[in-house]
Design brief:
The protein has 187 residues and is an alpha+beta fold. 33% of the residues lie in helices and 34% in strands. The chain has helices spanning 9-15, 23-27, 30-38, 42-64, 127-143, and strands at 2-8, 74-77, 84-88, 91-99, 103-109, 116-121, 150-154, 160-164, 167-169, 173-178, 181-186. A hairpin with a 2-residue loop joins strand 3 and strand 4. The radius of gyration is 17 Å and the shape is globular. The mean pLDDT is 90.
């Protein structure tokens, strides 16, 4: 199972005031709040933990076909050797994150893996469609299929799946976009 999330740091600064009263307490565990408070860059730490939680949540929903809203149920554990994990109940997801001055991108998986992931800038309008079009073009080139034979379908829970001529390919696909950036990961 795989999940990914991308946060446009400029957009996050505009749309979300994570310093407002009770926000941290609603979203983050006490240990995560301590990480935020003691971080050299509190903004980046908030959005790193957020993207890790979102990526693991997407993998969990894909695997168990159940959604929930309880961010504190999703617990992040950072390590010094870039082997971060996120736990949801008794499920553990391995995380890989990229932190730049523009965005944070996290990918979660149940196994240690080398996912295929791509991220790019998307236009201000029709971001979702632009991301899907770029993804279909990249995948069609890699697998040698006509772009017209490739389709993305979502489950009732909004989990995306990729199909060629109505046959599902790739066991795991995750799509994310925020602000100027879009990303997808396949496994």
């Amino acid at each position: 199972m795989i999940g990914n999330d991308i946060v446009d740091l400029s957009q996050a600064a505009i749309e979300s005031n994570w310093k407002r009263p009770r926000f941290l307490n609603k979203v983050f565990t006490k240990k995560e709040q301590l990480l935020i408070r003691t971080s050299e860059d509190q903004d980046d730490m908030v959005w790193l933990l957020w993207s890790m939680k979102e990526a693991a949540y997407k993998a969990y929903v894909r695997e168990f076909k159940q959604s929930f809203f309880n961010p504190k149920r999703i617990q992040c554990q950072l390590s010094l050797n870039n082997q971060d994990v996120v736990c949801i109940d008794n499920q553990t997801y391995n995380l890989q994150s990229i932190i730049t001055s523009d965005y944070i991108h996290s990918i979660a998986s149940k196994t240690k893996f080398e996912p295929q992931s791509h991220f790019f800038k998307v236009p201000d309008r029709n971001q979702s469609e632009a991301l899907k079009t770029k993804m279909i073009h990249l995948i069609s080139g890699k697998i040698g299929q006509n772009i017209n034979s490739i389709e993305i379908k979502k489950t009732e829970l909004g989990v995306p799946n990729l199909f060629i001529n109505n046959q599902q390919i790739f066991e795991a696909l995750s799509i994310s976009h925020h602000g100027k950036y879009g990303a997808f990961a396949i496994c």
